[in-house]
Amino acid sequence: MTETAHPRRVFSGIQPSGNLTLGNYLGALRRFVEMQEAGVPALYCVVDMHAITVWQEPAKLRAAIRELTAAFLACGLDPARSIIFNQSQVPAHAELGWILSCVARIGWLNRMTQFKDKAGKDREAASVGLYSYPTLMAADILAYHATEVPVGEDQKQHVELTRDIAAKFNHDYGVDYFPLPAPIIEGVATRVMSLRDGTRKMSKSDPSDMSRINLTDDADAIAQKIRKARTDPDPLPETYAALAERAEARNLVNIYAALSGLDRDAVVTEFAGRPFSDFKPALADLAVSHLAPVTARIQELLADPAEIDAVLGDGAERAAEIAEPILARTRDIVGFVSSR
Ligand code: AQP
Fold this sequence. Notes:
The chain is built from 13 helices and 5 strands. The protein has helices at about 20-35, 50, 60-75, 90-100, 105-110, 115-120, 130-140, 155-175, 220-230, 245-260, 265-270, 275-300, 305-335; strands at about 10-15, 40-45, 80-85, 150, 180-185. Strand 4 (about 150), helix 8 and strand 5 (about 180-185) form a beta-alpha-beta unit. Helix 4 packs across helix 7 (about 130-140) and helix 9 runs antiparallel to helix 12. The longest helix has 30 residues, at about 305-335. The protein is globular. The chain binds adenosine-5'-tetraphosphate. Adenosine-5'-tetraphosphate binds next to helix 1.
């Protein structure tokens, strides 16, 4: 009768809402590949239905879905080992999303910080979907009885809400049906910050392109953005702990550590006492050496969109095979009559 009764299964998604950033790469994509290598069964989803919670021009959305799929593959996700698909091809997400929106409470959604951030000042003008997004995200995870959800720090609150929704469903219907999934937030780059403002996360929808490194940036753009990244006038200290009050400096050290695989203290020790004008070119070289092969591979894959669509179609079939029986049992638990 505990969540441990459910076999391990990973689910995570990324929105096809524009250029992927270094934040998505370090906080999510690279983690997905590590989990794949660890051999845990996993589904990685291009969450196109989440993307339309804000306006998406259809042709651009279509292109973004293929680009994100290409990025999944270019980073090392293997469709033979991980299920890669787009959300809208598996109707179980929408159906379970509705059921779970009847389980979640308005007060719970009112506490979601991402809605407040994304809706901005004019909440009345935000889409209903943007507000209820977390119940669809809960459905994404629970439709597969996923037990682990690798995400960046910003998504922790949504995974915790998913646990609350699963627990309330189980309680209300007197079942032990949905597992309580755990957010997996690991590594040194769980919250990559904007290059212009160390208090804001690096985001693909930030109006300033200089605030982020895009996976599609060329070497010159990466070098320029890192050179212009905001820091303070002090040199690098002797210890990582001494960066506690220096958000921008700390962010660059974190990025260096994540890309190099060194621990943060080792990075600081290597550059201790040196100015950021020494550190930044080293960081730019490191970023280019990691991202250039990924970018090149994305472009190669995009030359054959039919192949990308085939990966998504095959993934959607396999995803639906898992989700449909879980949905069928959910309908039964809820009390729907299924006689078709
Ligand atoms: N800055 C970040 N640092 C670490 N992880 C991050 N993630 C996003 N930004 C960072 C992680 O990437 C995954 C996919 O995110 P998403 O695109 O579905 O939505 P998001 O979190 O809203 O990402 P963005 O870049 O901020 O997109 P927009 O601007 O469209 O809202 C998640 O696991 C997320 O934690």
